[in-house]
Automatic annotation (TrEMBL):
Keyword flag Lipoprotein: no
Protein name listed in UniProt: Alliinase C-terminal domain-containing protein
Example of a GO MF term: carbon-sulfur lyase activity
A Pfam family reported for this protein in Swiss-Prot or TrEMBL: Alliinase_C
Higher taxonomy: Eukaryota, Viridiplantae, Streptophyta, Embryophyta, Tracheophyta
Length: 457
């Protein structure tokens, strides 16, 4: 009996030690994720409830119900599909708002109204083959997507499509890499220089140099590029992160241009006549319609050989692009065009809906900034949109916020106030700037604009 009690005591000690290790690990992981220290046993119980709700909770329409924590603890207003409408128990004071990523969840409410019009049903026997149209330069490009893209560009007037070769990619990021592959000489002694005017899209340097390719290299700010060497210049217009309209900067005779027009849609900027007619133009459904999860982008390319090389890159990289995603994207884009052609005054078009939402959000964020001397936003000159007939200034998908005065690191300053952003250094700019997503859900945006004026230095 004594031996049994001794073994039992040892077992209990080991069990207690293992549980303490588990408790420490959960506490450590949550501190890393939430930037917050929860130390009491009551707080630990909250954590177990939170984790259990996220991963073992009941599902409602394919979506896991969010945790509901009643006491005043730090939470993150997530932009994932797991948390559609986070409960804010204390009015939002303790909530961490993550506006770092441009996840376009603000479009969800519009698409919820469309129901069957945008529903795609695929039978098990469909889309089995690798091939879509072997006569096309881009042999894995679905004809339905070609029709939908061409129609939408004609409706909006934001790109010339006649005489172009269309290449489909897994988002515009893959198309960007494919374009670099196609435009960089494969027999050159040195890598091709790749530049973009600062502030530039933060992923350009990462994507350009990630594989340490001998074909191309990131050469930085186009304003500072003065080498007598071949180069590729990236022109993002409207620009990510600051929303400005862009033209090429270097203007050298050895340059090749790629125009990233992901945000050239009438909810963000006035569409001007005539439509852009550049050699390579990149677009994506993630910012045009909000369907980032479908991972579909397209390039309009003048030169057949460049389009073939881009297709070869994607063929080697991923052996084509998902047909299911292409068919879904085509259905969505057709619905957008249909909404624009609909004469029913009671049925709001997609671009009217998204423009009105962006206008309200920009009005609200400017009102919030005007209540404090700590921050400022860029101003945009109004122009008349050839698509809608409206006269307005840019309504960018991101706010390029500047911390005024003695705040030199705006990203860290806002992080202390539980607002996560992306700092200027990632865009080749001053740390006094941050990029803030304007595409989040209403609940997140409301808490953000209410908190911003309350921040003090």
């Amino acid at each position: 009996m004594a031996d049994f009690m001794f073994v039992l005591k040892n077992f209990l000690v080991v069990s207690l030690a293992m549980n303490m290790c588990l408790i420490w690990k959960i506490n450590y992981d949550d501190e890393e994720t939430l930037s917050s220290k929860w130390s009491s046993w009551g707080n630990l119980q909250q954590k177990f409830h939170f984790h259990g709700s996220c991963f073992n909770g009941e599902k409602n329409n394919g979506r896991v119900e969010e945790a509901q924590v009643s006491s005043k603890k730090t939470e993150i207003l997530a932009t994932t599909s797991y948390v559609a409408s986070t409960v804010v128990p204390d009015g939002g004071e303790s909530v961490v708002i993550n506006l770092d990523h441009g996840d376009p969840t603000m479009y969800e409410n519009f698409w919820k109204q469309k129901g069957e019009e945008t529903t795609v049903v695929t039978s098990g026997w469909q889309h089995i083959s690798y091939f879509s149209d072997v006569k096309n330069v881009c042999w894995f490009l679905e004809p339905e997507l070609v029709t939908a893209v061409t129609r939408l560009h004609k409706v909006v007037g934001n790109a010339a499509t006649e005489g172009r070769h269309m290449v489909v990619g897994t988002g515009s990021s893959q198309l960007y890499q494919a374009a670099l592959f196609a435009l960089s000489p494969h027999n050159a002694s040195t890598p091709m220089n790749v530049v973009s005017a600062a502030p530039f899209y933060s992923s350009y340097p990462l994507m350009t140099d990630y594989l340490k390719s001998g074909l191309h290299k990131w050469a930085g700010d186009a304003h500072k590029f003065n080498k007598e060497e071949p180069y590729i210049e990236l022109i993002t217009s409207p620009n990510n992160p600051d929303g400005s309209s862009r033209q090429d900067v270097v203007k050298g005779h050895k340059g090749i241009l790629i125009h990233d027009l992901a945000y050239y849609w009438p909810q963000y900027t006035p569409i001007l006549s005539p439509p852009p007619d550049y050699d390579i133009m990149l677009f994506t459904v993630s910012k045009s319609t909000g369907h980032a999860g479908s991972r579909i982008g397209w390039a309009l390319v003048k030169d057949r050989e460049v389009a073939k090389k881009m297709t070869t890159f994607i063929e080697i990289n991923t052996i084509g692009v998902s047909k299911d995603s292409q068919i879904r994207a085509a259905k969505i884009l057709q619905a957008v065009s249909n909404s624009c052609d609909n004469d029913d005054d009671d049925d709001e078009s997609f671009f009217d809906y998204s423009y009105n939402l962006m206008e309200k959000r920009w009005k609200k964020i400017r009102e919030a900034v005007d209540k404090t001397r700590l921050f400022s936003l860029p101003d945009f000159s109004p122009e008349t949109c050839s698509f809608s007939g409206r006269t307005f200034g840019q309504l960018p998908a991101f706010a390029w916020l500047k911390c005024e005065g003695e705040v030199d690191d705006c990203e860290s300053f806002l992080r202390k106030n539980k607002i996560y952003t992306r700092g200027g250094k990632h865009f080749g700019a001053s740390m006094k700037y941050v990029r803030i997503s304007m595409l989040c859900r209403d609940s997140e945006f409301e808490v953000f604009t209410e908190r911003l004026p309350t921040i003090i230095s």
